[in-house]
Amino acid sequence: MMRKNSIKDSTLVSEYINGNEPALEVLIKRHQQRLFSFIYSKVQDRDITEDIFQDTFIKVIKTLKKGRYNEEGKFLPWVMRIAHNLVIDYFRKSNRMPSFKNTDEFDIFSVLGDGNLNAEKQLIQDQIFSDVRELVKELPEEQKEVLVMRLYKDMSFKEISENTGVSINTALGRMRYALINMRKLIEKHKIILVN
Prior knowledge:
Strand content: under 5%
CATH architecture of the largest domain: Orthogonal Bundle
Oligomer: single chain
Distance between the termini: 63 Å
Order of helices and strands: HHHHHHHHH
Structural class: mainly alpha
CATH class of the largest domain: Mainly Alpha
Largest sheet: none
Number of domains: 2
């Protein structure tokens, strides 16, 4: 067991790519607690966490098997990035903001604005939310990541810094540029964000 703990992640990745299946098991066991905690801290649901955890390693295996793994950084930050993207995908698909539990009886958009919207105003408001979501997709990946963490997940810049592996100042800078770029995109697409 001591030997497994002393083997570098990069060595285990190489061994797995070269056909040593148990090397992946060592990697998963080595990082599962940290990864599981990271996912759970975002989704706050054990079943969903387990699903995303499994999906993360399915993606890891597919990427490794296709020979697309490029060790720019370390193995764990790469896996965390995959998990983070899958968490964002989960929230997109479930169409809810993470800081609220969205059940059939409660819709996050119902707490925004006037509760007595007529049909026309409701359509306009729906279009605004849709436009903003589309604009966010146009941002550079790093800016989009910080914006989503800050506005949709209500994370502090310290938490953003820890989750992205950049300094707080870098996270603040990315947020600033994301907002500047959002304004430019709003002007470029001539979107009116008032109803």
